[in-house]
Write a structure and sequence with these properties.
Length: 112
């Protein structure tokens, strides 16, 4: 990757991190405990608990991606950044622009 691509990728990662932080804050509001005595309208308590479980899984997924993006940003200047952990070939820049936290190329992921 050249310096221009690295800077473009750095800006993208920064933007995605900020957007993900905002999204995580919104999702955190939906994972509050379901109070047994709370009048929840047409939703049954069980439906509310199920919805909370889905929100918790979503939150974990977002937090995991946030950690991966932070790691990618931290390692972006390392010489092995953008090198596939499977075949040790450069990961195509287009893939990194779609998934900057990628540690493997598409071929290696498909072969797993």
């Amino acid at each position: 990757m050249n310096a221009e691509q690295t800077e473009k990728l750095r800006k993208l990662i920064d933007k995605e991190i900020e957007e993900l932080k905002l999204t995580i804050e919104r999702v955190k509001d939906t994972v509050q405990p379901v109070v047994p005595d709370d009048a929840i309208g047409r939703l049954t308590r069980m439906e509310a608990i199920n919805a909370k479980s889905v929100s918790e899984a979503t939150l974990r997924s977002y937090q995991a991606r946030l950690n991966k993006l932070k790691s990618a940003l931290h390692n972006i200047d390392e010489p092995d950044f953008g090198i596939c952990a499977g075949c040790e070939e450069p990961i195509p820049f287009k893939r990194l622009m779609v998934m900057p936290e990628s540690r493997m190329c598409v071929s290696c992921i498909e072969n797993r």
